[in-house]
Sequence to fold (473 residues):
Amino acid sequence: MTVRAPETDALARELRDQLGGEAVLSADERLDAYEADTYWKALAARANGAPLGRPDLVVLARSDEDVAAVLRLANRHLVPVVPWGGGSGSQGGAVPIEGGIALDLNGLDRILEVDEESLTVTAEAGVNGRRLERELNERGLMLPHYPASVDMATVGGYVAARGSGVLSTRYGKIEDLVLALRVATPAGELIDTLPLPRHAVGPELTQLFIGSEGTLGVITRATLQLAPLPATRRFEAVSFASIGDGIATVRAGITRGLRPSVVRLYDEAATRQTLGPVVGEELDGACTVFCFEGEQAVVDAEAGRMLELARAGGARILDGHLGRVWWERRYEFYRPPHLPELPAIWGTIEAVATYSRIERVYRAVKEAMKAYERDGLALKAHFSHWYPWGTMMYGRFVVPDGGPDAVTLHDRIWEDGVRAILGAGGLMNDHHGIGLKLAPYMEAQYGPALDTLRRIKEVLDPNRIMNPGKLGL
Fold:
């Protein structure tokens, strides 16, 4: 399907005629930036001079209508289109493996409306997360999302990858915060989903596009739920004797109606090697950071009750200042020197499960990774997004040097990790998307239901131009 010269030149001329000459990039040095997101295999391939994908053209869209026009042309010419936001995705979702057009949405950068009465914001897909949060904070508001990728990520990326942020335990993931979307379909039509999510006039189309990673269309704007900046935030920290004790205690609090905004439960290895170095203290056990926010009296009541449950669960109560230091340094976990670099192999074996299964999933992944300790693999896990029915495991692994067979080793680690998750009754992935990395396992995850998703794509995108190779479609 990849378009090549002279077809590239003809397509570029048509695009320039419609969008203006400055909107279409074809010089090699301009295409380089669109070869890889933060997916390890894409970064490694680019470093070796053989990128997994490279666009033939980059189009800089500046409006909904620009996006629709690009899709109409691409659909007519049967040219692949890959939406591009901040390039922060870790799963290869933005890698143009079949060439074609990288559709850069950063020019859709307007905050269109802030409704301070209804506590909503409507923003275009290219609005940067950090900028959006700063402007909302000036009004005493926040989008309670706060992902680690906030400096790079965009509103469109938040939604397309079904992302999550550190405040999710109280406010929910992005799908809980999206009220409505505007989407450019592969045929080049602009559609608006219903402006409110709680209705009984048919299926919820908004949720169809959340997490679709550009395979069903291009999200061009979103209306999102806001919250007031909290009157106060109270941080607490405790150390459990085991992961099981920690899970049981947090479950007891959440199922009793407590609403912490942050629960970050680190296993013993992550406590010593990740949390401790970032907050600057020597720590042991399964340390847990809590944050409670809102009106002071409610915050104190919730925090007090959670600490009571923690004591009953055998926890040691630590200085709550540790939690505040974690909050202030929470993005340092994803920056040097804590962020690995090539020639290391790294990734996050992420899983979500019910409370009755989550510890079994954790143990299964730990057991599966023992086979790679001979390669120097170290696995550190924490549990950071909690629901009334369960939680998720964020299992970060690093191999210091993958050697000449690094790609093969990487793929074996992932295959064994996913097999362990599914075998223990969990689901792979909570909030990072599927992309290229997890696409091979979608059949095992979904079973026959994946065919339904494929049929939906076939109807919306019969020429299969939208982000090919992603989501196992």
Notes: The two ends are 15 Å apart (CA to CA). The longest strand covers residues 345-354.
